[in-house]
Design brief:
about 375 residues; alpha/beta; Enolase-like, domain 1; 2 domains; eight-stranded parallel beta sheet; 13 helices; 15 strands; binds magnesium ion
Length: about 375
């Protein structure tokens, strides 16, 4: 069972509305799709959505690194040799987690297809009955965010996550306005995406103490673990670390410092499912609940995250909402209200529309 061909597609997915967070505004989503084929005709799909502010990778750099450095390492490999393949990736090049994730996801899709099992069955089975997704609201005026939130709750979403992090004063208004709009029973999560400093973060957390926020995510710069720890130590609130943890080495530091209460795992930070499983296991040892986050990913990486989410009991929330943000996707993710449906088909369980992938591709290559 050998890999004989890897294709790489640099594509752009059209968004329903611009995605706005503290450090970037995106009009469309640059993404890289990978297609791995074995000698006997099995095909696995993967995806990279690099984020230059988080992983230090761009759309173009990710494409080039997959093409020149990583994909050639897969030729003649057995797709089940996932540990060995990650060792080869890491020996070849440091970092570049989303490039590695694009191939890791395609390998898991292949493993599922070859063994005739949905991906979650290979990595833990169904630890949860279902995967409930939140609605994620971009940074806007407080009033608009409140209207968005109320509309989503009326549409049946049972969790709201809001993006903040421009400045503390406005963010306090945003959090209060959204809490007022959705009533007291809907869980509310706040993500500052590194947008505050320690003083500002403490001010926002103090001033919104009556808003019953589940957790405040990445309030300060990714590298500033000491500030994260200080915020966690002196405030009543739960603190989630996101950009501050990419891999198990980062997580060891967070655990040793007791710098966060909850962890946001993303396949694009970890380098794929295999290293994400190590993160989840380490977090479990430290009794630190996890979320699987995303980078506004298409059906491919979204379903990879969904399979991971459902398969580990320590992962109790997720933000697998990318497909809700596109005008058209490369495959269908079935949402039943705010619950992701698993098709039961092998691997990722999605059927990729190859014609559409090619239509939105700006440049591509084939490694064989
Ligand atoms: Mg985040």
């Amino acid at each position: 069972m050998k890999i004989k061909k890897v294709e790489v597609f640099a594509a752009r997915l059209e968004l329903k509305e611009p995605f706005i967070i503290s450090y970037v505004q995106l009009e469309d989503m640059p993404t890289i799709f990978t297609r791995i084929e074995t000698e006997n005709g099995y095909v696995g799909w993967g995806e990279a959505v690099p984020d230059q502010n988080v992983t230090g990778e761009t759309w173009e750099s990710t494409y080039q690194i997959i093409k020149h450095e990583l994909a050639p390492l897969l030729l003649n490999e057995n797709p089940f040799s996932i540990d060995r393949i990650h060792q080869k990736f890491n020996d070849k090049i440091f970092g570049v987690p989303s490039a590695k994730a694009a191939l890791d996801i395609a390998l898991y899709d292949l493993m599922g297809k070859i063994s005739g099992q949905p991906l979650y069955q290979l990595i833990g089975g169904k630890a949860h009955d279902e995967i409930q997704v939140p609605q994620v609201i971009s940074i806007k005026d407080p009033k608009e965010m409140a209207e968005d939130a109320a509309r989503f709750v009326a549409a049946g979403f049972r969790n709201i996550k809001i993006k903040v992090g421009t400045n503390g004063t406005d963010d306090i208004e945003r959090i209060k306005a959204v809490r007022n709009a959705i009533g007291k029973d809907i869980p509310l999560r706040v993500d500052a995406n590194q947008g505050w400093d320690r003083i500002e973060a403490l001010k926002v957390i103090r001033e919104t103490a009556d808003c019953d926020v589940d957790w405040y995510e990445q309030p300060v710069k990714a590298h500033d673990m000491k500030a994260l720890k200080e915020i966690k130590t002196v405030s009543h609130a739960k603190i989630m670390v996101d950009e501050g943890v990419h891999n198990i080495h980062d997580l060891v530091d967070v655990i040793e410092m007791r710098a966060a209460d909850v962890l946001n795992i993303k396949l694009m930070k970890s380098g794929g499912i295999y290293p994400a499983l190590a993160l989840a296991n380490l977090a479990e040892a430290a009794e630190m609940p996890c979320q699987v986050g995303s980078m506004v990913e298409s059906a491919i990486a979204t379903m990879a995250g969904a399979h991971l989410s459902i398969s580990k009991s320590i992962i109790d929330t997720n933000e697998m909402v990318g497909p809700l943000m596109f005008t058209k996707d490369v495959a269908k993710v079935q949402y039943d209200g705010d619950v992701i449906q698993f098709s039961g088909a092998p691997g990722l369980g999605v059927e990729v529309d190859e014609e559409y992938v090619r239509e939105i591709t700006r440049f591509s290559c084939e490694i064989r």
